[in-house]
């Protein structure tokens, strides 16, 4: 009994430390964003947390535990569903309740969604419909193509977002008029580089604490009789906390463009960096890797992309669109518990 209480208190301490690291990372990300402007500020946070998450997935794959061949698939799919429906849904709903209606650049948002739709189809759906191998698996050549295609498409997206069509991802002038942070004095170079270093440290702490909490999460899921996929969803939720907090704060400040840049950029970075990395590891070390998702998840994925396209095509949102995305998110959570 004493051991159980000690373990429970320790896990509570870890969770409190996790929240502290999340809030710190959001603060440092906002300092960088204020210095560099959009979309670079959002890009820094998305890339930093994704690189660390990829390292975590790679280490778990190389450890070779039972079910390690599904880790990348579960992590990528959970991240996409959480961002497309959970993060974007909460941002639009809460921002819509506060500001009635929020505007953004639809050309940039739709461009991001089209790349995301292509990437998830290439990597998560194609293994189900290809016939060269049985089951939800690629052949070695198919896996190599998926990895290279993902990396090239993500690289092209980065160039599109940050160089050739950067204006597609800049906040609208109307949404900046009442944003005090836009007119505040920009931080110095020294403060920006300090925040960059502290951001990386905070994100490492977030991922490390999420990994440390995973045994307790697994025990709780097992004790509750829930499917093992719930573990991946919970860990993905923990890892995405910094981006989620930052996106929500931006939406509450009527900066939905920043929220979308961060959310969609994070989803694209997850696939564009994770799939090439795990494909290379699987091919080089001859490890099993299953990327195909179930028919149920394919249905929810395509519904999310379809509704996301409708939401992002208008260039403005209300709380209703946020509620629709949240309904899909809760359906995803429910069907994960009761498939």
UniProtKB/TrEMBL annotation:
GO molecular function: potassium:proton antiporter activity; sodium:proton antiporter activity
Gene Ontology annotations for the cellular component aspect, listed alphabetically: plasma membrane
One Pfam assignment: Na_Ca_ex
Keyword Oxidoreductase set for record: no
Residue stretches spanning the membrane: 6-28, 40-63, 75-96, 108-129, 141-160, 196-217, 229-248, 260-285, 291-312
UniProt membrane topology term: Multi-pass membrane protein
Residue ranges of every copy of the Sodium/calcium exchanger membrane region domain listed in the record: 8-162, 195-336
Keyword Transmembrane recorded: yes
Protein localization: Membrane
Lineage top rank: taxon: Bacteria
Keywords: Membrane, Transmembrane, Transmembrane helix
PANTHER family linked to this entry: SODIUM-POTASSIUM/PROTON ANTIPORTER CHAA (PTHR37958), SODIUM-POTASSIUM_PROTON ANTIPORTER CHAA (PTHR37958:SF1)
Name of the protein in its database record: Ionic transporter y4hA
Species of origin: Polynucleobacter paneuropaeus
């Amino acid at each position: 009994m004493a051991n159980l209480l000690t373990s429970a208190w320790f896990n509570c301490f870890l969770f409190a430390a996790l929240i502290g690291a999340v809030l710190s990372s959001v603060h440092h990300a906002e300092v960088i964003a204020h210095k560099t402007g959009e979309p670079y500020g959002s890009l820094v946070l998305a890339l930093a947390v994704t690189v660390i998450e990829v390292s975590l997935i790679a280490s778990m794959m190389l450890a070779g535990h039972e079910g390690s061949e599904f880790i990348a698939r579960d992590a990528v799919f959970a991240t996409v569903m959480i961002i497309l429906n959970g993060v974007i849904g909460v941002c639009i709903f809460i921002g819509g309740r506060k500001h009635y209606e929020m505007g953004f650049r639809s050309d940039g948002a739709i461009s991001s969604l089209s790349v995301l739709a292509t990437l998830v189809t290439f990597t998560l759906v194609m293994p189900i419909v290809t016939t060269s191998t049985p089951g939800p698996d690629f052949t070695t050549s198919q896996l190599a193509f998926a990895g290279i295609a993902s990396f090239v498409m993500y690289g092209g997206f980065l160039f599109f977002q940050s160089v050739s069509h950067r204006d597609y991802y800049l906040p609208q002038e109307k949404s900046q008029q009442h944003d005090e942070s836009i007119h505040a004095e920009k931080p110095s170079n020294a403060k920006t580089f300090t925040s960059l270093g502290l951001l990386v440290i905070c994100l490492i702490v977030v991922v490390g604490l999420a990994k440390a909490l995973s045994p307790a999460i697994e025990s709780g899921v097992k004790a509750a009789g829930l499917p093992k996929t719930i573990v991946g969803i919970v860990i993905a939720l923990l890892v995405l906390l910094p981006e989620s907090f930052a996106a929500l704060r931006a939406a509450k400040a009527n900066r939905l463009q920043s929220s979308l840049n961060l959310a969609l950029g994070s989803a694209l970075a997850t696939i564009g960096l994770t799939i090439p990395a795990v494909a290379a590891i699987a091919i080089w070390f001859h490890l099993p890797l299953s990327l195909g998702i179930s028919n149920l998840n394919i249905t929810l994925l395509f519904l999310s992309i379809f509704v996301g396209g409708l939401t992002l095509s208008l260039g403005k949102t209300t709380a209703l669109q946020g509620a629709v995305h949240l309904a899909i998110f809760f359906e995803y959570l429910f069907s994960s518990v009761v498939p």
